[in-house]
Amino acid sequence: MYIVISVVLILYLLGLSILDIRSQKVPTLLIWSFIGLLVLEVAINNQGRVTLSILGGAVGLLMLIISKLTKEALGYGDGLLVLGLGISLGLWKILWLLMIAFFGAAIFAIGLLVLKRAKRKSTLPFIPFICASYIILFVFEIM
C-alpha cells in the first residue's frame, strides 16, 4: 500500500512541478486537495505516528509564516505543500526532504549564477526540488 500511495504522490508532485515551472503559480485548490488526501492517508494508515505528523505539519506552518513575513519570497504554495507532506511524512522525514530540496535548489541556483543564466534576485520554482527530494527519499526507503 505504501508504494501505491507514494507513486500517486510522486505523480501529483510531478504535475505540480510542471505547473510551478511554467507559471511559478500553483492553484491553491490543487494543494488544499492534496493536503486533504494526505490527511486522509494519515488517518487510514496511522501507525502511532500522530505526534510526528503534527510536528511535521508544524514545519509546514512555520514555512507559511515565513512566506507571509517575507512577502512570499518563499512561496505560499510551497509552504502549503510542506504542510501536507509534513503531516504525511512526519517530522524527521519532512526535515530530510527539506534539507535535500534546499541543498538541490542552492546547487542549481549557484549553477545558474555561474553560467549567468540568472541574477541574484531571480526566483526559482521550489516544488520541483520538493518533488525530486520526495523521489530520493522514496527510493532510499524501498531499497
Account of the protein in words:
This protein has 143 residues and is mainly α. The protein has one domain (2-142). The chain has helices spanning 2-23, 28-44, 50-69, 76-89, 91-114, 127-142. Helix 2 (28-44) packs parallel to helix 4 (76-89), helix 3 (50-69) runs parallel beside helix 5 and helix 4 (76-89) packs antiparallel against helix 5. The protein starts with a helix and ends with a helix.
Quick recap:
The protein is mainly alpha-helical.
Structural class label: mainly alpha
Number of domains: 1
Strand content: under 5%
- Low-pLDDT residue spans: none
In round numbers, the mean pLDDT is 91
Terminal-residue CA separation:
16 Å
User: What would you call the shape?
Assistant: globular
Taking all Cα atoms into account, the compactness measure Rg is 15 Å
Number of strands: 0
The largest sheet, given as strand count, sense and whether it forms a barrel, is: none
Helix count?
A: 6
> Helix and strand succession?
HHHHHH
Key terms:
0% strand, 143 residues, mainly alpha
Layout of SSEs?
Elements: H1 2-23, H2 28-44, H3 50-69, H4 76-89, H5 91-114, H6 127-142
Helix pairs in contact: 1-6, 2-4, 3-4, 3-5, 4-5, 5-6
